[in-house]
Amino acid sequence: MNIHEYQAKELLKSYGAPVANGVIVLNADEAEAKAKELPGPLWVVKAQIHAGGRGKGHFKEPEAGEGGGVRLARSAEEAAEQARAMLGKTLVTVQTGEEGKQVGRVYIEEGADIEKELYLSVLVDRALGKVAFIASTEGGMDIEAVAEETPEKIVTVPVEPSQGVTDEVAEKIVQGLKLEGTAAEEGKKLVRALYKAFTEKDMAMLEINPLIVMPDNHIRVLDAKVSFDPNALFRHPDILELRDLSEEDPLEIRASEHDLSYVKLDGNIGCMVNGAGLAMATMDIIKHYGAEPANFLDVGGGATKEKVTEAFKIITSDPGVEGILVNIFGGIMKCDVIAEGVLAAVKEVGLSVPLVVRLEGTNVEKGKEIINNSDLDVISADDLEDAAQKIVKAVKG
């Protein structure tokens, strides 16, 4: 689960991170009053969407004015004017795609003089099985580009879970950022604060880009991006309250309400599978035979007929789906239950695209019999390769 920049900063501030004062604007009518809560002389106006590249983005509507989703203002009145121009408009960035995202919130923050821009993030290094810090002197840039072009400028420092952030770990990170004096001491405090926040709140990723050093050698979190492990949100009702449903895909929201693991993709073949590994293999073989998956959808090991029906409805609700592949390996989940769920869904919502069903495992013969004896136009497959070939062929006509 992602949250907005202003929410991330407020959370990090509660752990002692150096964050500028700011105000959130939800309504254009309150923009000027909100902006005047900050003393100036420089205001930074930031569109709040769950996507990066806001500063280099552009608005679809000409009335939003020139510039991207991050703008400077020299007065409270100008800041309010920029906030009003952004609210309700569609911001397009490299991460949103051409459809862009509508701006429903604008954050106005105190400006800062910048001496240096740095990069600092915390994530789970799955190869090491540990939380690790990623530090670079190349802040303000796409870290992937830095990794490709100048990998020597990136420092990775893992943290032993039993020890936490030791003096040695903090020192390595500060050295990687090339901080000295006051900035170095503040950097060590920040590293400890970030690790505490990351572990206590079950974060999946915490990125500060840029972390700035100001002319007085103090540091400040200038931008922050935070995401959380969705499987741990039951432990954090305070974090769950920060969820902005308007930033999420409606189909993904609907799936989460029925405890389905669903991620919308850009392809044209809808997939309904049980088990994350099998779902990934199904997506891979669809691509292998020249098509693209429209989604990742794992109905889980113990899905009911009703759950399968809802999953099918979600797939067919995507206008980009031109064919559907159901690939089920029945263990705990029985193939006949899947078959009944698929047929119930087809009868309820209709079927206007090709449907291929591959079943294997518990009660597979019963499942195939249910499919074959139905009066619906369903294509049966013997194995995964056969299923992928059939659905790709059916979609391509």
UniProtKB/TrEMBL annotation:
- The positions annotated for binding ATP are 46, 53-55, 109, 112, 117
| Pathway where this protein functions | Carbohydrate metabolism; tricarboxylic acid cycle; succinate from succinyl-CoA (ligase route): step 1/1
Catalytic function, reaction form: GTP + succinate + CoA = succinyl-CoA + GDP + phosphate; succinate + ATP + CoA = succinyl-CoA + ADP + phosphate
What is its EC class?
ligase
Q: Which GO terms describe its molecular function?
A: succinate-CoA ligase (ADP-forming) activity
Keywords of the record, alphabetical order, are: ATP-binding, Ligase, Magnesium, Metal-binding, Nucleotide-binding, Tricarboxylic acid cycle
Lineage, top-rank taxon, reads Bacteria
**Its EC number(s):** 6.2.1.5
User: How is the quaternary structure described?
Assistant: Heterotetramer of two alpha and two beta subunits.
Q: What does this protein do?
A: Succinyl-CoA synthetase functions in the citric acid cycle (TCA), coupling the hydrolysis of succinyl-CoA to the synthesis of either ATP or GTP and thus represents the only step of substrate-level phosphorylation in the TCA. The beta subunit provides nucleotide specificity of the enzyme and binds the substrate succinate, while the binding sites for coenzyme A and phosphate are found in the alpha subunit.
Family recorded in the similarity comment: Belongs to the succinate/malate CoA ligase beta subunit family.
UniProt-listed NCBIfam families: PRK00696.1, sucCoAbeta
Query: PANTHER family of this UniProt entry?
Result: SUCCINATE--COA LIGASE [GDP-FORMING] SUBUNIT BETA, MITOCHONDRIAL (PTHR11815:SF10), SUCCINYL-COA SYNTHETASE BETA CHAIN (PTHR11815)
Name the chain's protein: Succinate--CoA ligase [ADP-forming] subunit beta
Q: Which organism is it from?
A: Parvularcula lutaonensis
UniProt gene name: sucC
